[in-house]
Amino acid sequence: MLLHGLWMGGWTMGWLARAVRQAGFHTETLAYPSMSGAPEQHIERLAEAVTRCAAKTLHLVCHSMGGVVALRYMQTRAHPRIRRAVLLGTPALGCQAALAFERQPWGPALLGKSLSLWRAPFARTLQTHAEVGAIAGNQPFGLGALFVRLPEPSDGVVTVEETRIRGLRDHIVMPVSHTGMLLSPKVATQAVSFLAKGQFLR
């Protein structure tokens, strides 16, 4: 199951979904109103999608805010069928760029109801039986870099350190930007590797 990030729709996960299918997995992309919906509504939507899914074992592939939603879901709801989750550019420990947006006159309108997801981590350590791997980018080409001097390395929106929540099964840094990772063949290969084996390629 794939989850997109803020300001995006399910279609943005299309390239990754195809790569995952080509590796032999069945896919479903969960679309949700990232700006207008409250975080708890996103979590409930994910919970309902998992319940509807007939598969005995499920994996998650999540970009940015989608990963934060998935983490909160796994930390607050029973999820016995979730085996592995791959987080792509997910600010699991809060997001400095989002806080910089908030200080702009137009910031709250752009962030919508998602703001509470960015201010502070829900937990600093994973609270799930699922194996979780994180992919971070180190090419700082993104909207966040225009409004705040992000500590390096970053993907232009999320710093590498913001992706390092304790308890990860694996973590890898790749030469991609925050949005670019969605179209990177190498990122797709690493995501598939983690889904299949619980570890990234080295």
CATH C-level class:
Alpha Beta
* Total number of distinct structural domains: 1
- Per CATH, the architecture is 3-Layer(aba) Sandwich
Please state the overall shape, judged from the principal axes of the Cα atoms: globular
Radius of gyration: 15 Å
The H-level CATH homologous superfamily, spelled out, is: Alpha/Beta hydrolase fold, catalytic domain
- Give average pLDDT, whole number: 92
Largest beta sheet: what is the strand line-up?
Answer: 2-1-3-4-5-6
- The rounded distance between the terminal residues' Cα atoms is 25 Å
Element-level helix/strand string: EHEHEHEHHHEEH
Helix/sheet category: alpha/beta
* Approximate helicity band: 25-40%
**Which percent band covers the strand fraction?**
5-15%
CATH topology: Rossmann fold
Largest sheet: 6 strands, parallel
Total helix count?
7
Number of strands: 6
Uncertain residue segments: none
Task: Provide a quick synopsis of the model.
By secondary structure, this protein is α/β, with parallel strands linked by helices. The protein is 32% helix and 14% strand.
Structure keywords:
202 residues, alpha/beta, Rossmann fold, six-stranded parallel sheet, 7 helices, 6 strands, 32% helix
Description:
This protein has 202 residues and is an alpha/beta fold. It has one domain: Rossmann fold, CATH 3.40.50. It contains seven helices and six strands. Strands 2-1-3-4-5-6 form a six-stranded parallel beta sheet, sandwiched between helices. Helix 2 packs across helix 3. The model has no long low-confidence stretch (mean pLDDT 92).
